[in-house]
Amino acid sequence: MPRLPFVLLLVTTGCAAAVPIPAPPVPTFASAPPPAAAPRAGVTRKAEVSRRNVPVRVPWRASGRYALVAGDAAPPRGRGPVVRYTVEVERGLPFERRAFAEEVHSTLNDRRGWGRFRRVDGGPVRLSVALSSPALTDRQCLPLNTGGDLSCWNGRRSVINAVRWARGVPQYRGRLADYRDYVIGHEVGHGLGHGHRSCPGRDRLAPVMMQQSKSLDGCRPNPWPYPER
């Protein structure tokens, strides 16, 4: 029987498992409207504002080809090394590329984040942040099993599943902007060499490298590497 073009998404898991397992067949789907989230001061939320009352339909499979977001975005002033990176968005996804790139840059350069980052469109880079359809995510993340709704670090890309970007997860209680900060910080954290961590204790803030998309294990949600800064 032919596969339906869209079905409802159930978000239940988080960052890709460390041990590869066979991926089950996953149908296409449409995401529900993302919850409205109040923008933080100084952070552009163009994509959210423009689509606040419009359902974002995320296709299971888009073009399979990335478009590099052009331009050079400088890091904030300060001391310390600067990480050069690129942003890519799969062609055919229902997200404005520059708005995605601006949100990634704001997250990475937040005072509570990993450090100082410069977005470029050429030359040597440490990593790339790539918004991807579920089908492309599954392919990019092999041999890890992403099962259609996980994100991953694949050795050179922080592969962000577009379904996660559109929907978030229930344990973030509708705070989509915070969840987006988390998934960027978590997958880029892998690119910087950080491994997974566990909950340090009930009602404590979850480390950003904890798999918060799967469970909080008694911790409170936290999108930042250094939340007390």
TrEMBL record:
SUPFAM superfamilies linked: Metalloproteases ('zincins'), catalytic domain
Signal among keywords: yes
Highest classification ranks of the organism: Bacteria, Bacillati, Actinomycetota, Actinomycetes, Streptosporangiales
Keyword set, alphabetical order: Signal
Domain DUF3152 intervals: 61-218
Highest taxon listed in the record's lineage: Bacteria
Protein name as annotated: DUF3152 domain-containing protein
Pfam families given in the database record: DUF3152 (PF11350)
InterPro entries in the cross-refs: DUF3152 (IPR022603)
Signal peptide (UniProt feature, chain positions): 1-17
